[in-house]
Each structure stands twice: as structure tokens, then as C-alpha cells.
Amino acid sequence: MALSSNNTGTQVIEFLMICFPGMQNTQHWLSILLAPLLVLALGANFVLLMTIWQEASLHEPMYYLLAILSVLDVILCLTVIPKVLLIFWFNMKTISFSGCFLQMFIMNTFLPMESSTFLVMAYDRYVAICHPLRYSSIITEQFVIDAAIFIIFRNLLATLPTPVLAARLNYCASNVVENCICANISVAKLSCGDIHLNKLYQFVSVWCLLGSDLVLILLSYCFILRAVTSLQSGGATTKALSTCGSHLILILFFYTLLLVFIFTNKAGKKIPSEVPILLNVLHHLIPPALNPIVYGVRTQEIKQGIIKLFKSWS
């Protein structure tokens, strides 16, 4: 127990993350899956960012939005997965009090930022297909700047209270977090105080941010689908659907995995506690690994840019 004593009593000064409570002797084998995925995610996003930076033809709003998504993916990966691997490989389970809440802040802020980026990208595709003649006047570099400012401040202001509310609780007893990461409720339930406000705020903020993003994304694709079905040319329909295919695949995967994690977590004792913990870890790793690969494979301009990049390195 890492505790300190002062005039207000005994206080926790660091937390001990044990990851999977029922798999203490075997959990390190998960690193065989996590380590290659981390290398893949960081490498793929690095290549994508370098391609967009070096290839002049990719200096367009759509690809700038993709670059923002890659940066968010890298930050989320580096916030969670290296610490998990340190726990598995070197039994480095401790994390400082401030470090724990910093990790909580980054996770709770940058995950909704990724959702908001998908929303802006959906709007980009909506304008491109439903209002193609106005696209260049609406989706500009200034639009990307304004969208980035919106993404940052909207999610920063909405999610900042989550770690603040958790940090202000009185931690005077156990410091053992039954999780691989400093998730809000996993940490807050260790306190000696009332955490109903913490649970309520997390529930409201998550569903207001991610829920509203998902509804607006689905609405934009309803308009896109209606516009595509009205096209007379089969070739035009195929091209329009192709431009949205990559984006839609990643959106469906992002929200499906997130919803599965939420409902699995709510199922409580009906599902082993290791399942939501693993899903939470994977949600910080699989989308970052998948996003640049899907765009690299399905987007001809990016594929050509990556080939040029590798040729310049050889």
C-alpha cells in the first residue's frame, strides 16, 4: 500500500494496477497480441502522416482531417498501451496519483475528439456528394482550422470535469485498481466518498458527446444514401459510394466496439470482469491500427503517395 499520513488522515499517493484480476499468472501472454498491434498502429500512422506531409497533392482538407485522426490515434495508443506492456513484462504496476488522473484526462478527452473528427469527416463527405459544386467553397483550409478548434474546445470543456471530480475524492483505503488503465469508475470506486455524481456525469457526458456524434453521422449518411440512389449513372453511384466506403467502415468499427464495451460493462457479473477490461484496452489499439491501413488500401491517392514515400526512402 502506497500511503501517506497527514493531519487529515491516511491518503493514497499512488495506485497499483493489476490489470486482469483473474488472470494474474497468464495475463502477460496478451502482450503477444498487444505489442505487434502497437508497432503496427504507430508505424502505419507515422507513414500516413509522412505521406500527407510530403505529398503536395494530399494537401487538401479531406486529408488534413485524416491527419488529425492519426494524431489522435497515436496519442491514445501511447497513453494506454506502453503502460499495459510494462505491467505485463516488468510487473511495473504502480502509477503516481497525478499520473493516473493525467491518463484518465487524456483518455476521456481524446476519445470523444476522435468521435468528433469522424463527425466532421462525415460532413465533408456529405458536402462532397450532396453539394459537389459548393464543396470547394465550403470545405476549405479555414474550415479545417475551425473544425479543429471546435473539436478541441467542445470535448475539453465537456470532459474535464470527469478527472477533476475523481481527483477531488478522498482516497484513504485501497489503492488497487482492478484494471489495466486508470478508468474513471475503476479508480473512483476506491475512494471513501460518494461517487454517484462521478457516475452520473460520465454517463451524461459520454452519451451527449458520442451519442450526438453518432446520430449526426448516421443522419449525414442517410442524406448521402438518398443522393446516391438518385444518380442516373451506375458509374457515378459506384464512385460516390467508394469515396465514403473507407470512412463508413471505420465509423462502424469505432462505434460498434465502443457500444459493445459499454453494454458489456453494464452487464456486470453476468460477464467476467476481464472481458470489459480487455475491450477497453483493445479500443485504444485496434482503431488506431486499422484507420491508416483502411485509408491506405482503399484511397488511391494515399496509396500512390505511400508508394512514392517508400521509393524516396529506398
Automatic annotation (TrEMBL):
It comes from the Eukaryota. Pfam families: 7tm_4. GO terms for biological process: cellular response to lipid. Gene3D superfamilies: Rhodopsin 7-helix transmembrane proteins. The chain crosses the membrane at residues 29-50, 62-81, 206-228, 240-263. It is found in: Membrane. GO terms for cellular component: plasma membrane. Residues 44-295 form the G-protein coupled receptors family 1 profile domain. This is Olfactory receptor 56A4-like. It comes from Ictidomys tridecemlineatus. The lineage of its organism: Eukaryota, Metazoa, Chordata, Craniata, Vertebrata.
